Amino acid sequence: MKITHWAGLLLAVTFLAGCYTEPVEIPEETVGLAPVYSDGDWKTIESQPPQPIIELNKIYYKDSLIFVGEAQKGIHIIDNRNPAEPERIAFISIQGNSDISIKGNLLYANNLADLVVLNISDINNVELVSRVEGAFPQSGATLPQGYFGFFECPDPALGTIVGWTEKTLQSPECWR
Amino acid sequence: MTKISTFILALLAFFVLSCAEDSADISAAASSGTGVGGSLARFTIIGDYLYTVDNTTLATFDISAPEAPEKIDETVVTRGVETIFPLKDHLLLGTQNGMYIYRVSDNGLPAYVSEYQHVVSCDPVVANQNYAYVTLRVSECREAAAGAANTLDVIDISNIESPNLVNSLSLDGPYGLGLDGNVLFVCEGSNGLRVFNLDDPESPEEIRYLNDINAIDVIPLGGTLLVVGTDALIQLDYTDINNIQVISVMSIGA
């Protein structure tokens, strides 16, 4: 969607909101949604060498491994057999990922709007077991239906929006 | 404290943990059970079913055949569903207007049991069989209602059909929380981490306040606490609750 549409929407919302409620105050920092832009084939999931943690999301623990979510990008695997010296040992790239859960050797994750099941018995060579397409319709490419709040204004220069993800926003200029 | 004694302490903590954890060899087959997430988690597995929350909806996936998982249910809960906490065969959902409780039947399908309503704010939940602990945050919470406050609410769920607020403590701006026996950890973001004693489960008593760390969510692992902040992943040894020690700090950032 072109940015002018957002501007129009913004304008309309501002006027509408002005009729019924207090004008929206833009917070310095708030949790809202941010677009996820396509980065090549977003369905590609693979083990990669360890990478620095840039933006910590959520963590999950199993069998002396800490799974650290890198917001929107994937999961860092940390060997925590020695908690005094936790060591990054791999990174699993999963576009648009925010949540995981693990049972046995199987890791369940959201890959944008899809649910994916990964076999992680070899952490350096994870394998896609299955994929449920469109399992999370609210993570689809348009702003989620029913979402009202702040979001990061889309920038068409960054590519196609393939989903939305929760993010801490600084003075967001888009909302609905 | 000298570096040597820190090292010895860390070593000690490592050995203590090694005893508790008999699955130390990563290359060996992982345990068949599930792992553990933080209080901000939105996925959880009970038996052969994966439950996910997604803004308004609780979805159920049958994962008995992992090569072909199937979405078997979608339940609209309310607006602003944020977290999911498994408690045996119940799911406790933290939403922006309250805590919703669902019971999971043998066929995996969730059925509404009850809810505890509060003013609109942001609120993860943890619980044991008798009490649920909910943090409510106003700051950095979209849509927080006027009159909302930063609190730790104690809710009696011994009758799960009828949750009952028994106490509400004032906090700075709480995020995630973690429960281990009679110890409750509450994250206060840049304001640090609070540790409460729950000898009287209805009146959490603050016994420690670590104000020099950034804490968003925690996972207690029976003596070791994983603390997620915006700037680091910190591990604390709380085997002696009166003498909590830093085991390691993994910094975040390139």
TrEMBL record, chain B:
Coiled-coil annotated spans: none
A family per Pfam: LVIVD
UniProt KW keywords: Signal
Signal peptide range in chain numbering: 1-20
Protein name per the record: LVIVD repeat-containing protein
Source species taxonomy: Bacteria, Pseudomonadati, Bacteroidota, Saprospiria, Saprospirales
